[in-house]
Specification:
The protein is built from five helices and twelve strands. By secondary structure, it is of the alpha+beta class. The strands form three sheets. It has a six-stranded antiparallel beta barrel with strand order 1-2-11-10-7-12. The chain has a four-stranded antiparallel beta sheet with strand order 5-4-3-6. Mean pLDDT is about 85; it is low at about 210-220.
């Protein structure tokens, strides 16, 4: 399993080889540093914790001591792996493990829509707008029999909508821009602009070997952010 964390920038479109337009979502990615290894003997399961420069600038002392200066603004994410021995603390991973054409899954937090009615939340058709239906065209209508004198659990009604973890599977990577640190994924991804998304797929992780490249990758997110990454990445993909 290979994975990487990035920020959703914006949607764009590119031309495929057959000259058809392909809608893509541009994700800004940076390098991640392995901060902790969990094994079956010590923790009961095998996992690897990776820190990315996508977190808040306000870092607590406990987190700062945990990452030991490897990440400036740590966003810690844990991934279950089968072979935790293949990783070691301090290894750096970036988008070089992915290639155009890879089929991936993207996990993010959907847009929060607040308290919503049944038409928006559950796609109810609503009531007719004539023949005595006044001011209730978007009302839920009857919720069942009155014999039980209660509302059964799971009844589709108005309530909080969105702001939930969503995973979209079978997406394809269209292109990878190593210079700007962006990945173009075919289709739409969950979450608003600027939200953190997790890209994962089948394959093996490839650590970055060059020390100088490590430093560039760790600061690539901050450097790209200073130069309006949405506009720069979009123009790069379109060109």
């Amino acid at each position: 399993m290979k994975f990487i964390v990035g920020r959703k920038l914006s949607m764009s479109q590119v031309y495929a080889e057959d000259r058809t337009i392909v809608p893509v979502t541009i994700v800004r990615v940076g390098a991640g540093v392995v901060t902790q290894i969990k094994t079956v003997d010590t923790d009961g399961y095998a996992a690897v914790q990776v820190g990315y420069n996508e977190g808040s600038k306000h870092v607590t002392a406990s987190v700062r001591g945990h990452v030991k200066g490897a990440v400036t603004r740590p966003y810690l994410k844990e991934f279950r792996v089968q072979n935790a021995d293949a990783f070691s603390v301090g290894q750096v991973y970036d988008a070089s493990g992915f290639e155009p054409g890879d089929v991936v899954s993207v996990t993010g937090t959907s847009k929060g829509r607040g308290f919503s009615g049944v038409v928006k939340r559950h796609h109810f058709s609503g009531s007719p707008k004539t023949h005595g239906h006044k001011h209730d065209s978007r009302a839920p209508g009857s919720i069942g029999s009155t014999d039980s004198a209660r509302v059964f659990p799971g009844m589709r009604m108005a309530g909080r909508f969105g702001a939930e973890q969503v995973t979209v599977k079978n997406l394809k990577i269209v292109s990878i821009d190593a210079e700007n640190g962006t990945i173009a994924v075919k289709g739409a991804l969950p979450g608003p602009r600027g939200s953190v998304v997790i890209i994962s797929g089948d394959g093996e992780m490839k650590p970055v070997s060059d020390k100088e490249q490590k430093k560039e990758d760790l600061t690539s997110v901050e450097e790209v952010a200073k130069e309006d990454p949405i506009t720069a990445a979009t123009e790069k993909v379109q060109s």
